[in-house]
Each structure stands twice: as C-alpha cells, then as structure tokens.
Amino acid sequence: MGKNVFGSGEFGSEGRLPARVDPGAIRPLSVAGETLANNLVVAPMAGVSNLPFRLIAREAGAGLAFTETVSAKGLVNGGAKSRRLLRTSAREAPVAFQLFGAEPEFLAEACRLVADDGAVWIDLNLGCPVKKFIRNGAGSALLREPRRVAAIVRAMRAAFAGVLSVKMRSGWDDQSVNAPEVARVAVAEGADLLSVHGRTRSQQYTGRSDRDVIRRVVEAVPGTPVLGNGDVTQPADVFDVLHETGAAGVMIGRGAMGNPWIFAETLALAQGSPAQRPSHGQRWNTVQRHIELMRRCFDDDGALANNLKKYVVAYAKGLPGSARFRREVVETDELGILLDRTRRFFDGAQAAA
Ligand SMILES: Cc1cc2nc3c(=O)[nH]c(=O)nc-3n(C[C@H](O)[C@H](O)[C@H](O)COP(=O)(O)O)c2cc1C
Predict the structure, then answer these.
(1) Judgement on whether residues 288 and 258 belong to the same structural domain of the protein
(2) Is this structure's pTM higher than 0.85?
C-alpha cells in the first residue's frame, strides 16, 4: 500500500456545508433480497476494515460494511490468516466478505466455503493496485482481462446464491478507462451490485476520484445498483456524489477512519437536522469503545498495539497537538505506553475544550 494513502483529504474536519441536501438521497437499499437500512457503506480496506472498525461504523449508522480483502486461494488452502479475516459478529449482519484471486476455480471454491459459514454477501476485488496482487493477476490486473472477469464472476455466481458484488477501479491507466465495459460484463454474468472507485490503477491514490466514470458505469448497467467511491470525507461529498453520478449509494473508506460520525452526520442532514460534530467526550467514548473491541480481537499485546496505532492517530487528526501525538504513538510498541499516551492526549483535548 502506498505511503500516502491516508494523506489526501481532510478527514474529520469541520468541512463545508452541503450545497444540496436531497432528503431522498439517503434511503434504504435493496439488493437481491437483502435490504440495507441505508445506502452509506464502509469500504473494504486491507489492514483497516476489521471487525472492530466495521462495528464502530455500523454503530454510527453505516448501512453495510465490506471486510478486508481475503485471499480465495488462502481460504481454499486452509490458511489461518485468511480464516481470521472472516471473523464476524451477528451485530454487523449482513456483512460483505471481499475475496481476491485470479482463478475462477479458487474463487468459486472460496465462495462455497464462505457460504457454508453463513455468508449472505460476497464481493470480488478488481481494484487493488499493489504489486503483489498484480503479479498474481488479481485485483486491478483483472481490469485488463474482461474475459477472465467474466469467467470468474460466472464461476462465483454458479457457486453462490447470495448477493454477489464487484468492486473496481475506473481502469488500468488513463489510456484504458474501461470500468463501464467491465461493469457490463460483470452484470451479464450475474453480479448484483458494483462499487466504483474513480481512479485508475496507475493513479494509485493520487489525483481525484473521477465522478464522471462512476456516472458512466451507472448508465452502463441500468437496473443494477452502483456505489460511488473515492474521496468522500464529509457529508457534503456524499450528497454531491449521489447527485453527480446517479449512484444508488456511496462507499466511504479513508473518510470513515477516525471519523465514524460521517455516517450519523449524513443521516441527520438527510432528515433535516443539523450535522453535529462529536463533542470531545463523545470522541473519547468512541475511542475507548474501539480499543475495547480491538482487545477482544487480539490475544497478543504487541499485535494489538501495532494495530491500534493507526486508529488512535486517525481519531486524533485535526485536534490540537495531533502531530506530536502521532510521533509519540508511532515510536512505541508497548501497549501500556500507547494506551497511556492515548488517554492523556484525549483527556488533554477534553480539558482544553
Ligand atoms: C489502507 C487501504 C486499504 C485498502 N484495501 C482495499 C482492499 O482490500 N480491497 C479493495 O477493494 N479496496 C481497498 N482499498 C481501496 C478502498 O476500498 C477505496 O476504494 C479507496 O480508498 C477510495 O475510497 P476512499 O477515498 O473513500 O478511501 C484500500 C484503501 C486503503 C486506503
């Protein structure tokens, strides 16, 4: 994952007021027999979208969350790491399990395994730009092979009766922006929903997510819901994406890190109430709850500390002293020290308010 992936945008900022709030824009979303309470969903993010992160976002109002991406081959080969990524809780049902791979047989077999565990929603990763994926022909490498995409979706569809979705980038590079074509192929083979991140593989996380490509995908697959994704960091962006693209919903990734309130704020605005930023007390309560959920997920203190850092730093973003807090957090591997520094930082923020 590129170094600057969390760098763009102002996450958790006060933000601008939405230019338009269409009250009908935020609504329940029905997809192939599943009805979500609303059309705001949490993006799959490797190393981020684990069970605690997803639960926090769902508690804040998100209608659905996607898991971290899971290797189809890893699952089929009985890999413990891949299995762990499937961990879920009844409190987040339904959840969308994201799989990656390049071979139709492995993806189909992985679908059967995940379905046996009770999955009702499986997503295919056609977006990941990292070299390891590309070398294996997975993630966004598949955008260059629509015929293989067809074979994969066909095999997954034959193996899985639940909701089958596909997440893609806009194309491989700016010479081959083919998301509308790939979308048509996926839908023809039985995909029920698509998510589109409006950047090419070459762009990685630079530039802006292109809403025009998202709109063209929406137009390419009438009747199939499309989620617009990319650079949504505040409620105003949600309403803009829906308005400009005609998408059925919005998928939020980095903008929900340390800022699960983006969901509650958007829902409030859609209902005609002002969007309230969380008080320092509310922020600290959420940080504590997130830490508590993480504790239940990790047996090992070292792993817990390492995994916690990115979240507490994200919650601190925008608060006075957050740059120093970030440095202090990054330099320690001790869980006790990390928790102590976190408590002191958020206590201080509360006292200063
Ligand atoms: C740390 C990180 C990990 C990601 N992992 C995945 C992944 O496993 N599968 C996937 O489809 N997209 C992945 N993405 C892409 C996001 O789902 C999303 O498409 C992208 O970040 C743009 O949306 P955003 O601006 O709301 O973050 C990842 C993004 C980040 C920042």
Answers:
(1) no
(2) yes
**Ligand 1 centroid from CA 189, angstroms:** 25
Output the CA 45–ligand 1 centroid distance in Å: 5
Provide the 10 A C-beta neighbour count for residue 110: 26
Instruction: For residue 289, give its domain range.
Output: 280-352
- Residue 200 CA to ligand 1 centre (angstroms): 13
> Last residue of a domain, which of 270, 289, 320?
270
Averaged over successive runs of 10 residues, the pLDDT of the chain (353 residues) comes to 40 60 92 97 98 98 98 97 96 98 98 97 97 96 98 98 98 97 98 98 96 98 98 96 97 98 96 88 97 95 96 96 96 96 91 77
Main-chain dihedrals φ then ψ at residue 211, nearest 5 degrees: -70, -25
SS (H, E, C) 143-161: HHCHHHHHHHHHHHHHHCC
CB of 95 closer than 8 Å to CB of 54: yes
- Asked if residue 47 has its Cβ within 6 Å of ligand 1, the reply is yes
* CA 315 vs CA 263, 264, 275, 318, 322: distances in Å: 15, 16, 18, 8, 9
Q: Which residue owns the Cα nearest ligand 1 atom 22? A: 230
Best substitution site from 45, 99, 130 to test ligand 1's pocket, by max atoms within 8 Å of Cβ? 45
